[in-house]
Specification:
169 residues, alpha/beta, Glutaredoxin, five-stranded mixed beta sheet, two-stranded antiparallel ribbon
């Protein structure tokens, strides 16, 4: 598992872009993790899946609600990463009203999640390889804090916990 002080792994994540802008076409766009985190403080939180109960009722809404406070605390971007495709993450973004607050990053093949060492096998529950529930702060691509949940828990990776960590720094 990645540790505090280590650089984020080389990986690509995908985001569904619904409004054409410079450098981004409409549809799924690929983003290099190193390029996207260079020179920025980014909160990255991972979760088992789009539209799943805790993820939809608590995890994502907490970050949407706390986005302004996180930005005020020096966070440049907030990413939600899940082992789903960009179309599913885009639909979930619309459902959760994340536009302008949380970037919904798809890791459809779990390449980023596996490179972090934060995958879990939920095949017995029909979900395949998924992400563990976690949250981290990366500064210029280096992990500064990492909170990984115990299986079945939601206690340390929520937005309030990250805000508390930032206020202690």
């Amino acid at each position: 598992m990645i540790q505090v002080g280590e650089k984020l792994p080389q990986a690509t994540v995908y985001e569904l872009i619904e409004d054409e802008r410079e450098g981004c076409t409409i549809g799924p766009n690929s983003f290099d993790v190193h390029e996207q985190t260079a020179g920025k403080r980014v909160v990255i939180f991972g979760l088992p899946g789009a539209f799943t109960p805790t993820c939809s009722a608590k995890h994502v809404p907490g970050y949407v609600e706390q986005a302004e406070k996180l930005h005020a605390a020096g966070i440049d971007e907030i990413w939600c990463v899940s082992v789903n495709d960009a179309f599913v993450m885009g639909a979930w973004a619309r459902d959760q009203h994340t536009s302008g607050k949380v970037r919904m990053m798809a890791d459809g093949s779990a390449a980023f999640t596996k490179a972090l060492g934060l995958e879990q096998d939920l095949s017995a529950r029909g979900m395949g390889i998924r992400s563990q529930r976690y949250a981290m702060v990366a500064d210029d691509g280096v992990v500064k804090t990492l909170h990984v949940e115990a299986p079945g828990k939601f206690e340390v990776s929520d937005a309030a916990s990250i805000l508390a960590t930032l206020s202690q720094a």
